[in-house]
Amino acid sequence: MKFFDFFTLGSSFLTLAPSPVLASPVTARDQLEYEYIVVGSGAGGGPLACRLAMAGHKTLLIEAGNDQNRNLNITVPAYQAIVSNDPKIRWDMFVNHYQDQTRAMRDPKYVYEVAPYQYHVGPDPPSGAKPLGILYPRAGTLGGCVTHNALILITPHASDWDGIASITGDNSWAATNMNQYLDKVYEWLPVEPTDPTILLSDLKLVQQLASGAAVMGVGPDPLAAVIGLANTLLNDPNSRLNPTRDSTQGFFQIPLIMKNGARTAVRDHIDATVQAGYPLTVRENCHVTNITFDTSGSTPKATGVNYLDGSYLYRASPLSGGQGTPGSATASKEVIISGGAYNTPQLLKLSGIGPSAELNNLNIPVVVDLPGVGTNMQDRYEIPVNVKHGSDFVVLNGCTFDEKPHDECLTRWENNPYVLAARGAYATNGLAGTMVVRSNYASTTDVDMFIFGGPVDFTGYYPGWADAAVADHKHWSWYTLKAHTRNRAGTVQLRSTDPLDTPIINFNYFDTGTTAGRADTLDLDAMIQAVNMSREALRRYSNYAILGGDAFIEEEPGLAVQSDEDIGQYIKDRAWGHHASCSAPIGVDNDPNAVLDSQFRVRGVQNLRVVDASVFPRIPGVFIQAPIMMVSEKAADVILNG
Ligand SMILES: Cc1cc2nc3c(=O)[nH]c(=O)nc-3n(C[C@H](O)[C@H](O)[C@H](O)COP(=O)(O)OP(=O)(O)OC[C@H]3O[C@@H](n4cnc5c(N)ncnc54)[C@H](O)[C@@H]3O)c2cc1C
Ligand SMILES: *[C@@H]1O[C@H](CO)[C@@H](O)[C@H](O)[C@H]1NC(C)=O
Ligand SMILES: *[C@@H]1O[C@H](CO)[C@@H](O)[C@H](O)[C@H]1NC(C)=O
Ligand SMILES: *[C@@H]1O[C@H](CO)[C@@H](O)[C@H](O)[C@H]1NC(C)=O
After folding, report:
1. CB 368 within 8 A of CB 359
2. Can you say whether the dihedral through the CA atoms of 429, 430, 431, 433 is positive or negative?
3. What is the crossing angle of helices 625-641 and 45-54, to 10°?
4. Which parts of the chain sit beneath pLDDT 50?
């Protein structure tokens, strides 16, 4: 079955208009009274602020980072690893997968600080090095993590929305109703897959991808592998024409947030909204420190925010150092917090909204005792099977991933702005095709694993991972991303009352988290199955020997790791995540851990909402930016239309 609903081969001769530089907000700096204040410009806050302004409301969008427009790290899709290492953009969070540090240190990606922003990775740290945990990249920049992420847009499953409707009894969350918000997202978000012709020029790449397709029963005939794979890559995993899409297994293309091979997303939507003259003020280099309340009535009412002006204030930034200049702004209608899964709970707690015991310990006056703030946090697990070939993938010939004049792939990308296929290897994030799998351990009929492949050497996050990922052109990896994970045991707690400190983040992976109903072993077994399937794809590579690809050796997990027990230990030690969410969840009135009602309103106060990755009761879909953007559009509708 083929679905052609957005992909049209070779039709990309559209103009790629360079974005104008974001209008300077400086003229508006004196007028600090707004109708709405939105804190955080990522997937949750950005689209919402645009809609509020487009409806004519005077809106202030506050962003701790700044606009990195025209930074090629952002716009070149193949720089998706490099961009997450850009000090002007990145926020390095260090998290605990396990609170038991001895266990956490089994991960070779475990990080120690040897001097401010200087790290040691792995065992045998120098004496005096301070254990930090596992690097979790975030972005402090206009557009949030959407500005530096891997560009993959996968829409959620109907069950994700129907689940919220059934928990809350609010039928506006039903999947049939949520569909309209995806239409709204597509009004401003361009999405296109990697042009297959870029991939098909590299027969070794074809051979690896065809082998993955073969595992899913749709492998092309070896004698016609190129055209066969090209056809397979027409399959859109987001198809809205396939009524059984959520449960459809197979081999699919990967849709990316780009236009003519250049990342175009939330940052550009914000810019376009400002340029169009809507009453949107963007205040960048501004770190919100707490929410202000009018406590004269029976219910505290949010009235605005306090902040610190200054660039790179937050200590997650490697450029941080200053203290900033205090200021404040008021919102006559509402304050909306969209700082992301870590910063939203931090900001709520700093403002007196959270578990009273934690706030009392830090002498923060309690505005509302909401025990659920910073609990229920969830993520996916990701793990690779990683191999090294004897020779390069030719599709990467000339790619140095460093923006220098000798970066021939960049020259090609820059010289062919209008023809996607001609832009070459830099017009893709490098991850071109995916197995879509319903594991033997899934709880519903929905698929619950993506196993995507690409010529990359990536084994998770640690300082320096981005350079290592592209250091040679010989590696291939199959990455398993486990969806509908069952662990709900993550927490975000204050390290101190200093708003520029990062919070303490515990994920409590696998058996140290949710175990009821064998939750941890079901997730782990699904991932072991995926490692098996990745290896099965690698075995089938020899069936396509006619394509001429050379041999490889497995580096991770490595051939010594074979039994389910050993594969399971490998996964427990080394898995990582990048879809942190659910840390200020929507819930029903009588749920003591519900932070929000079904209209995003923070319980126990007026005029305050949360709109970002934090709001979900359960982690949605397979990738998270699409559901967050849909939530952002829904929130705008709820706020504007009641
Ligand atoms: C390396 C990486 C790759 C990823 N790849 C993908 C992918 O391919 N597909 C996908 O679907 N998802 C991906 N994700 C996840 C996705 O990008 C994020 O989950 C999503 O952007 C989160 O949206 P958000 O609005 O909740 O928060 P964010 O996008 O993080 O936005 C929050 C914003 O708030 C700002 N902020 C925070 N606190 C304050 C404060 N106190 N004052 C002022 N501003 C503040 C931050 O600077 C930030 O800009 C990836 C994530 C990472 C880290
Ligand atoms: C891109 O990021 C790298 C770090 O990965 C950095 O060294 C470089 O300066 C950045 N490029 C630009 C244009 O800012
Ligand atoms: C917010 O911070 C200011 C000082 O920066 C403090 O005076 C105020 O009490 C705080 N408000 C709340 C609600 O925590
Ligand atoms: C993984 O493969 C091995 C060897 O074929 C098999 O014994 C095992 O049951 C598989 N594990 C899972 C979880 O599918």
Report:
1. no
2. positive
3. 30
4. 1-30
Tell me the per-residue pLDDT of 76-106, one tens digit each, with 9 for 90 and over: 999 999 999 999 999 999 999 999 999 999 9
* Contact indicator for 487, 509 with CB cutoff of 8 Å: yes
Per DSSP, the residues of 66-104 read: B--TT-HHHHSGGGHHHHTT-TTTEEEEEEBS-SSHHHH
Q: Which two tokens stand for residue 461?
A: 């996050």
Go through 40-64 and write b for each residue having 16 or more CB atoms within 10 A of its CB, e for each that does not: bbbbbbbbbbbbbbbbebbbbbbbb
Domains of the chain: 11-91+135-189+263-376+583-641 (3.50.50.60), 195-253+381-484+513-574 (3.30.410.40)
Do β-strands 353-354 and 368-369 pair in parallel, antiparallel, or remain unpaired? Answer: parallel
Is the distance from the beta carbon of residue 528 to the nearest atom of ligand 4 less than 6 Å?
yes
**What's at 135, amino acid-wise?**
L
Residue 399, strand partner residues: none
512: helix, coil or strand? helix
Q: Tell whether ligand 3 has an atom less than 6 A from the beta carbon of residue 69.
A: no
Omega before residue 592 within 30° of 0, cis: no
Q: What is the DSSP letter of 243?
A: T
Q: Whose CA is nearest to atom 12 of ligand 3?
A: 351
| Closest ligand to Cα 148 | 1
Spell 161-191 as b/e; 16+ CB within 10 A means b: bbbbbebbebeebebeebeebbebbeebbbb
Q: What are phi and psi of 96, to 5 degrees?
A: -105, 120
CA distance 424 to 536: 29
Could you report how far apart the first and last alpha carbons of the chain are, in Å? 41
Give the nearest ligand 2 atom to 88 CA: 14
Amino acid at 453: G
Residue 89 φ then ψ, to 5° = -115, -35
Q: 531: helix, coil or strand?
A: helix
| Residue among 292, 337, 369, 497 whose CB has most ligand 3 atoms within 8 A, to mutate | 292
Q: Measure CA 56 to chain center.
A: 30
pLDDT, residue 31, reads 58
Name the one residue in this structure whose structure tokens are 């058996």: 511
Percent of the chain residues topping a pLDDT of 90: 93
Whether 215 is in the pocket of ligand 3, judged by its Cβ within 6 Å, is no
Please report the atom of ligand 3 found closest to the CA of residue 350. Answer: 14
